[in-house]
Every structure is written in structure tokens, then in C-alpha cells.
Amino acid sequence: MRSNLKVSIVIAMLVGQAFTLSAQNRNAQPQQQVPPSPSIDNYFVPASSTPAKPNEDGFIGRWLLLDPIGRPNRGNTVFVDSYIREQLTKEYYPNQFKTIPKNGEKVKATVLKEPEVKFDGQRPPMGFKFPDPVPAKETLVWHAYDSKLFNVKLYRFATGNNKTRYGIIFHAVTVINCEQDIPNVRLAVGSNSASMWWLNDEEAVILSGDRRMVMDDCVSKRITLKKGKNILRGAVINGPGMSDFCVRFIDENGQPVKNITVTCN
To answer: How many C-beta neighbours within 10 Å does residue 106 have?
Structure first.
């Protein structure tokens, strides 16, 4: 009887040691890396010097896109009108609303970053309060791209350039060229998530709330595209999740405006 008891104790000790070694081996293994995102080449090509045209449905694909501006948000429920106006009209870098950027141009922006918090592989303790984001200076670069799709995949733009993909603000600028005045048109926008849009320095459309991109989700009042250059600016804010937008002009009958060209200057 005692012999059987000793044998059982030895077996239990060996099993316990094996379990401990197995756990140590698991902990010693490097963490699995997140699979790389699809190449940015699947979604964008560098913009050429030749003026672009809208696609067959009138969507504008040529844009100057700025590296993402850090603005941490752990959810999209805060994207009400007042919050959107506060965050998207704020000046993050000099002459933000006054100049047309150039491809490769750099700006020194004030961004927000979350302080690093370590839990040694464990979950945050119950009731833990994450520290508030802190201001930081960061050099951001403008990129001139033509989208291969009717929409502009901001998430893929960020990941393709190895930039932060969540808790950020995207800035987009393009130039609409007209041979003559085009009256009584509307700017039609869809975005994921919230966004604001300005034409020739005047607010045209605001899309607030946690929303998915839907074409022509919001449209402006009647506006006139003036002969010559018209500067179109947009800002899109993203918490967690994907982010993109689609933009076109439509006429009184809801038909796309295509007798325009699009450039980056």
C-alpha cells in the first residue's frame, strides 16, 4: 500500500515538473507577429504630373494625404458634432488651412501619444485608469497618390507606410480644375469614420458619429465650382477599425460631375 502511495507521489511530481517546463517553454517563445497588411500597391499608385479625371461615376481619386496625426480614441462613440468640430478644425501644424502642400513636403505637427503601459503580459487590473495622452512633436510627410478604387483606403495608406492605424486623424487635399463656372452642384461624401470637408476655405459637409462609408452619405448645399482652381480639403478621424472615404460632385439630377480635372497643385 505504501509502495503504491510512493509511486503515485513520484508520478504526480514528474507531471508537475513537466507542466512547469512546458509553461516556461511557452513563455520563452517569441510572441506571434501580426501578419503584414496587404501592400499599398494594391490600393494606390503615385500621382503623375498629368491631370487626372474623375472615374466613370465621378469619384475623385487623386489626393495629397498626410501621415496620420495621433489623436487616441478607444472608441468612436465620442464622435458627436461638437467633438468633431473641435478636433478637426484645430491647427496641428503651421498654415494647415492656408497652403496647398507638395508631394514629399514635411510638416512639424503637434500630435497626442499614449504613454506606454506595461502589464508583463497580463491583463490590466480591475479599475485600472489608463494615463491620458500626452502632446508630442512629430514630423509628418505629404504623399501624392491616385487611388486604384473609387474610395480612398486610409487604413491601407497608413499600414502601407508603416504608420499608426488607430486613434488618428487623416488630412487630405486636392485641387479641382474647371474650364468655366459649374453652378448648382453638390459635394457628396461618404466616410469611415467621422469627417469634415471644406471647398475653397468654406465648410461644405460634416459627417459625425460612428459610421461606415456609404457613397453620397452626406451632400452639401448647392455650391459653384469656380473657373480655375478649387481647393478641396478633408479631415477624417478614426478610433479603432478601418477607415476610408469617397468623394464626388453631383448635379441637380444626382448625376456625377465629370467635366473637371484633378491635380495636386
So the answer is: 13
